[in-house]
Design a protein that fits this description.
Catalytic activity: dTDP-beta-L-rhamnose + L-arginyl-[protein] = N(omega)-(alpha-L-rhamnosyl)-L-arginyl-[protein] + dTDP + H(+)
Pfam family, one: EarP
Family: Belongs to the glycosyltransferase 104 family.
Number of helices: 15
Order of helices and strands: EHEHEEEHEHEEHHEHEHEEHEHEHHHHH
Structural class: alpha/beta
Helix content: 40-55%
Protein name: Protein-arginine rhamnosyltransferase
GO molecular function: translation elongation factor activity
Length: 384
């Protein structure tokens, strides 16, 4: 039984759609599945409106899917602090809001929702308190891939919806038709959503030279420049279709979160980036490659390898080597064509592992549920 509390979630949009994508899913799930009143504070309403077409980029206050969405502007409008306050991805709460928490005389649970990582130290740091100078206590909450972490965002009916969709060719065909795409018999269907990446050219070469037809769906995003360069075009845009050898490329419009799930579920292989699409591709139960956000000190390689160390568990050695090889080439920006050929030879084992991984993650619990349970446990401890 959920303990009802008021929630404030703060999101600063710093990495395209990743931060707002995660927080918007979380806010919706807290309302829909746990009956929690939620305010989502967003500093970039234009980006939010692209992700959620029902939203206005101009309204300072609006309610969508039961979530109160507020514009978090430089001029703080003032608001009574909620019972649970989530500072998403170290976005730094307004000082006036922190002062109001300290002066409220109430026990407020302050959570720093961290970025996703599979590194070993996450388990030891998850749910640790941090006493602040003003007497408030902040807790670090880490999403993750193991039971002793905060888990991943997953709606309660997600796996059932995915299973129904993937078992229904007609529903898949209708979805693709809405994108202007018709899946060809025996064709391999792939999606590409990545940061700018020089590895893309070698991969497209391999797809074009394949003996099997490949249909590649590319949603609008940062990787379009690489696709255009490979095609020898000055630019590409949604609605464009191209064919080179055995490769058909369809540029598809930017999608809502629910539409993007359907895209991932439709494909045999998904290239994804960042955190939001990375999580959703895992729930698709299909082999994938992750373009991790590069960091100047190369710390992203530690994060990438930490995830692979968990994900490859139980794979035959050849399949593990093939997967590591392609992910390494993809993120290094070279050698993706040769590595892709090796990966394809291990596809059946990788497909089985992708589905098995989803069951393991379901068993770990989901982020929204773990947040609600954490608050209930904290509340019991506070009141003895």
């Amino acid at each position: 039984m959920s303990v009802k509390a008021k929630w404030d979630i703060f999101c600063a949009v710093v990495d395209n759609f990743g931060d707002i994508g995660v927080t918007w899913r979380l806010a919706r799930q807290l309302v829909a599945e746990h009956g929690q009143p939620v305010r989502l504070w967003v500093d970039d309403l234009e980006t939010f409106a692209r992700l959620c077409p029902a939203a206005s980029a101009h309204d300072q206050q609006q309610t969508i899917d039961g979530v109160e969405v507020r514009h978090w502007s430089k001029t703080w409008p003032g608001a009574e602090p909620a019972d649970v306050v989530i500072e998403a991805f170290a976005c730094n709460l307004p000082q006036a809001y922190i002062n109001a928490m300290a002066a409220s005389g109430r026990r407020v649970l302050w959570l720093n929702l961290e970025y996703l990582s599979a590194e070993d130290w996450i388990i030891g740091c998850h749910a640790l308190p941090s006493l602040q100078a003003n007497g408030l206590q902040k807790y670090f909450f880490f999403p993750g891939f193991e039971a002793d972490t905060g888990g991943l965002i997953r709606e309660s009916d997600l796996m059932q919806r995915r299973a129904r969709f993937q078992a229904d060719p007609l529903q898949q065909a209708e979805f693709l038709a809405a994108l202007g795409v018709e899946r060809q018999p025996e064709a391999r269907l792939l999606s590409l959503f990545a940061y700018e990446n020089p590895a893309v050219a070698g991969w497209l070469d391999a797809l074009a030279g394949d003996t099997r037809l490949n249909q590649l769906l590319v949603p609008e995003g940062r990787v379009l420049g690489d696709v255009a360069a490979w095609l020898g075009m000055p630019s590409v845009q949604a609605g464009d279709h191209y064919q080179r050898g055995s490769l058909q490329i369809s540029i598809v419009p930017f999608m809502t979160q629910d539409e993007y799930d359907l895209l991932l579920w439709s494909c045999d292989f998904n290239a994804v980036r960042g955190e939001e699409s990375f999580i959703r591709a895992q729930w698709a139960g299909r082999p994938l490659v992750w373009h991790i956000y590069p960091q100047e000190d190369d710390a992203h390689w530690d994060k990438l390898n930490a995830f692979l160390d968990l994900y490859v568990h139980g794979l035959p050695p050849a399949a593990e080597q093939a997967l590591r090889g392609f992910w390494r080439a993809w993120n290094a920006g070279e050698g993706a064509g040769d590595a892709w050929s090796v990966l394809l030879s291990e596809y059946p084992a990788l497909l089985g592992r992708a589905e098995g991984w989803t069951h393991e993650q379901v068993a770990n619990g989901d982020l929204a549920g773990k947040l609600v349970f954490f608050y209930a446990d904290w509340l019991r401890a506070v009141h003895g």
